[in-house]
Design brief:
The protein is α/β, with parallel strands linked by helices. It contains 24 helices and 25 strands. The strands form 7 sheets. Strands 7-6-8-9-10-16 form a 6-stranded parallel sheet, sandwiched between helices. Strands 12-11-13-14-15-17 form a 6-stranded mixed sheet, sandwiched between helices. Strand 3, helix 5 and strand 4 form a beta-alpha-beta unit. This is Periplasmic binding protein domain-containing protein.
Length: about 725
């Protein structure tokens, strides 16, 4: 894209030489209109090192190769038809300047650079050694994806590319020359800003043309307000009209700009409006141009590049209607009816788009559009019922989502032989979600109303705070089709009486998804779209998160502590077949219990005194540790052996009962501690042995203190 822009500029100025640092790949060479051999400076069909027309050189190589390139540049400048150089990278420009200074060609050489290094290119533009530079606005390349991802994560809405085209937002090439140096400097300064300075008070005017009965418009205004609050702007939303009146609407907007005659301070600093008619947009653009403020239009209908509109953002209603018509044609509908909530042009454009799709397909007979008031439900239901009874239609395009609610009621009111038409909705409300799940509505086209407003204000703020924005005049939001009501991992929580909401505030205060689709809870999942209830995880599986589409196995090594796996692990427990033998040996080591105890079948009653004997012997070793015969036997080690051995035996005994977290943890602790007491006393002195036992028992809790504290010799 950058190459095409420069080639157009070069063709207008008859500039024909292209210089680049590295060899172009063949596909890009062809795309730029260059004819060269990649990795070489030889041009097809020429052997003298120069050529007529467009060519490319690789300035990357050895000193000898660069010297040869320099000779070729000098030789080519002796030709009268060479008068311009296009450098694809900024660091090539000093080489070009050096060659110009050495050769001193008899004519001016126009230099353009397809790059923008602020420290150098600004100076070259200022002194005239570079005629034009291309700025890619890297600040926007980081900022905008974050903003688009934010709305995707919070409300599941973001920018959209129609058809098979992925959404693409161009931040460059923004061509800079001598006349745009202040703008180039401002944009370059933004690159070093980590946070906007939002101390300057700014007032933004917003005007929309529908009444507050239209929930989609209300969501758009809420999006504008949320983004304005993030920028600390004052938002002035002009009163809505009950019915759109073009003359009155334009007059009300002009009155809001009346203060501009008294000075800039009285003017708003930006304007955002809906797109009711071409006349209204032209009048609003004129007011904004006189006040020299950015103007953003929500809605891409009747895009007019000649108007002073900074950005047309939102959905193309004609295109949405065309996509809906194609879906109806593909579903076999041949007598479609387009239903509108009013005579508003946006709904008329949706009907026109549907009719165009049928005209292109060359099938069916499109019925004349009808206006049904969705806010007087009984009237809309009655009219739909009349159409169903006479069999006029086999399909319906609801240009306003609540109209499909009325259609659903009319279907239920049919007495006999009910007709269920194919239905497509432009827009999604809580009831439409239920109709998608029930199959009454086969397809809905998202309008993303909240994100239209939020991103309209985000782009306005970028202009005001950074003098930066995309180079395109249009940004598509809305228009994506969906056949599902609630996605996998969620279930439909709405009812006829309480359908839920499309949006709801998150605890942080940000806007998030509403209550119409609720996430599945812990240990439950919804593996497919349109679930009316979540399924419990099968036995032996679990999930700790919400909105799960599948469950994990309890044997994955992570689910050991999951509540849903407790019963599974209990059932998987297999008592050891040697349990009785292990108990016998253990009780033999520590002594049996009295009659009635679990050791009664193994040992006589007198064996229960063995633990007491062990304790007494250890105590005697401590008491008489200074006696020569006992001191020679290392009393510290001798006292630790029976105590540690007792702990090792008990660690195995408790595993013969119920296995749970407590018994397993206790067993491991007793085993390792007992073994350490038996084998870990390195000093024969009893006091040092006791200190080592303390270290074994307390572990890392005592080590930091021990290193500099009372146990320096351990």
């Amino acid at each position: 894209m950058k190459g095409k822009v420069f080639l157009r500029a070069f063709s207008q100025m008859r500039l024909t030489v292209v210089v680049r640092k590295h060899a172009l790949p063949p596909n890009r060479t062809r795309r730029l209109g260059l004819e060269c051999i990649p990795g070489s400076s030889r041009i097809k069909g020429k052997n003298d090192g120069c050529w007529r027309g467009v060519g490319a050189w690789d300035l990357h190589g050895s000193n000898r190769e660069r010297h040869e390139h320099d000779l070729r540049v000098r030789k080519c400048w002796s030709y009268p038809h060479i008068n311009g150089i296009f450098a694809v990278q900024w660091d090539v420009v000093p080489v070009i300047h050096s060659a110009i200074a050495l050769v001193q060609p008899p004519r001016d050489i126009f230099v353009a650079v397809d790059d923008f290094n602020t420290a150098d290119v600004l100076g070259w533009l200022l002194n005239g050694t570079v005629g034009v530079g291309s700025h890619q606005q890297p600040f926007l390349q980081g900022f905008l994806p974050t903003a688009y991802m934010y709305t995707l994560l919070t409300v599941n809405e973001t920018i959209y590319g129609s058809g098979d085209t992925a959404p693409a937002v161009a931040t460059g090439p923004l061509l800079m020359d001598n006349s745009t140096l202040p703008l180039a400097y401002t944009i370059s300064q933004t690159e070093s800003v980590s946070a906007f300075n939002l101390s300057t008070p700014r007032r933004i005017i917003a005007m929309f043309h529908q009444s507050d009965l239209y929930d989609e418009q209300n969501a758009t205004i809420t999006g504008i307000a949320d983004a304005a609050a993030a920028f600390r702007y004052s938002l002035n939303t002009l009163p809505l009209q009950n019915e759109y009146n073009e003359t009155a609407q334009i007059a009300a907007l002009a009155a809001a700009f009346a203060g501009c005659a008294g000075g800039v301070a009285a003017c708003p600093e930006a304007l955002i409006t809906s797109n009711p008619t071409a006349t209204f947009v032209a009048a609003a653009a004129d007011l904004a141009a006189r006040a020299t403020i950015p103007y953003v239009v929500v809605g891409q209908d009747r895009f007019n590049a000649s108007l002073g509109v900074h950005l047309w953002i939102g959905m193309d209603n004609y295109r949405a209607g065309f996509d809906a018509g194609e879906a109806l044609v593909a579903a076999g509908a041949r007598r479609p009816l387009c239903a509108c909530p009013s005579s508003d042009e946006m709904y008329a454009l949706r009907c026109e788009g549907m009719s165009a799709a049928y005209a292109v397909a060359g099938v069916g007979s499109v019925l004349a559009p009808v206006v049904l008031d969705p806010f007087i439900a009984q009237n809309a239901q009655a009219q739909f019922l009349a159409y169903l009874q006479v069999g006029k239609m086999d399909s319906v395009l609801c240009t306003f989502a609540p109209l499909c609610d009325a259609l659903y009621v009319a279907i239920q009111l049919q007495k006999s032989n009910p007709v269920i038409p194919i239905a497509v909705s432009i827009g999604v409300d809580p009831s439409t979600v239920g109709l998608l799940i029930d199959g009454i509505v086969q397809l809905a086209i998202e309008t993303a109303p909240y994100t239209q407003g939020f991103l309209a204000m985000i782009h306005t703020g970028l202009v005001l705070e950074a003098s930066s924005d995309t180079i395109a005049r249009q940004l598509s939001i809305g228009g994506s089709p969906r056949t599902w009501g609630c996605p996998a991992g969620y279930y439909y929580s709405g009812t006829t009486e309480v359908p839920g909401t499309m949006y709801a505030r998150l605890p942080s205060g940000a806007m998030g998804l509403g209550t119409v689709c609720a996430p599945c809870g812990v240990d439950s999942f919804a593996g497919a779209d349109n679930a009316r209830a979540c399924s419990a995880c099968p036995f032996g599986t679990y999930v700790n998160a919400t909105a799960a589409v599948t469950c994990q196995s309890c044997l994955d090594g992570i689910g050991i502590g999951a509540s849903g796996c407790a019963a599974f692990f209990s059932e998987q427990e297999v008592p050891p077949t040697s349990r009785a033998s292990v108990k016998g040996f253990a009780y033999a080591g520590i002594g049996g219990f009295r009659e009635g105890g679990i050791g009664k079948t193994f040992l006589p009653h007198t064996a229960s005194c063995i633990p007491a004997i062990t304790v007494i012997l250890s105590a005697l070793l401590v008491t008489f540790r200074r006696e020569p015969i006992i001191r020679a036997a290392s009393p510290g080690l001798a006292a630790g052996v029976p105590a540690g051995s007792l702990m090792v035996i008990v660690s195995q005994l408790i595993l013969q009962g119920t296995l749970d977290k407590a018994t397993c943890t206790t067993s491991i602790w007793l085993l390792t501690t007992g073994f350490g007491i038996v084998m870990g006393t390195s000093q024969f002195d009893f006091a040092n042995g006791a200190r080592e036992i303390l270290v074994i028992l307390l572990g890392e809790w005592v080590r930091p203190w021990d290193e500099d504290g009372p146990f320096p010799d351990i």
